[in-house]
Design a protein that fits this description.
Radius of gyration: 24 Å
Low-confidence stretches: none
Largest sheet: 2 strands, antiparallel
Order of helices and strands: HEEHHHHHHHHHHHH
CATH architecture: Orthogonal Bundle
Number of strands: 2
Mean pLDDT: 87
Oligomer: single chain
Structural class: mainly alpha
Shape: globular
Strand order of the largest sheet: 1-2
CATH class: Mainly Alpha
CATH superfamily: MetI-like
Length: about 290
Amino acid sequence: MNKTWNNRAWFMVLPVLLLVAFNAVIPLMTVVNYSVQETFGNNLFFFEGVKWFQEVLRSDRFHASLMRQLLFTFLILAIEIPLGVAIALAMPRSGFWVPVCLVLMALPLLIPWNVVGAMWNIFALPDIGLLGYGLNALGFDYNFTRGPLAAWFTVVLMDVWHWTSLVVLLAYAGLRSIPDAYYQAARIDGASPWAVFWYIQLPKMKRVLTIAVLLRFMDSFMIYTEPFVLTGGGPGNTTTFLSIDLVKAALGEFNLGIAAAMSIIYFLMTLLVCWVFYTAMMRGEDQ
């Protein structure tokens, strides 16, 4: 029997496509336009080709910001993924405490990014902040406004506090999707808790953990507001990640060509990693 295809449903999607085009495609084309031109004001533009891309890729400043960004991403993924899985495993599976734990886990995700940065700025002040005063009282020389290691410790700790809940919720959803028959079979076989985790829980959480790693990677590469409010990229350039360096180049120095080329490179790097994760996820589903 021949199927009759009705393409009128595309008209329902048209408003979304127009909105995406307005919010994403048009600004992207503007950035591409700036990345190949130079302007001296008065709406005068001069074509420069790939000059800005070459300058960015050869820049020690860009390399340093990229290394700081990659180090930050590696640190938060190495901390948040195992920590989120551990917390999800410790959460109750039934009873009164399930909604309580879920609400508590969701609370940090509801706080706006600029408020998170302001909260931790006060919390980590060495004289009056609970974290800063406590660490100094214990004998640590802690001042995130002057010490590079203290600044990194504070930024990473802030991100872990803010975003580990996302990993917890995703891992918990993966755990709840495991049928009880698997656990019953493990108990009959006398499997240890480690064997249950390694052979049952972890494989069943693989997809949600892949999504968690993908989301946290994208968020970590886009991070701007929290470290900017907390440290301003300092002390010096210690916590100047790619996003902060990009804003400095665009708004602080008004190097529109450099900033536009950096934005395109930034976008392509993120897109490439997301494509790798998506390919891995789809390959896992096929298997």
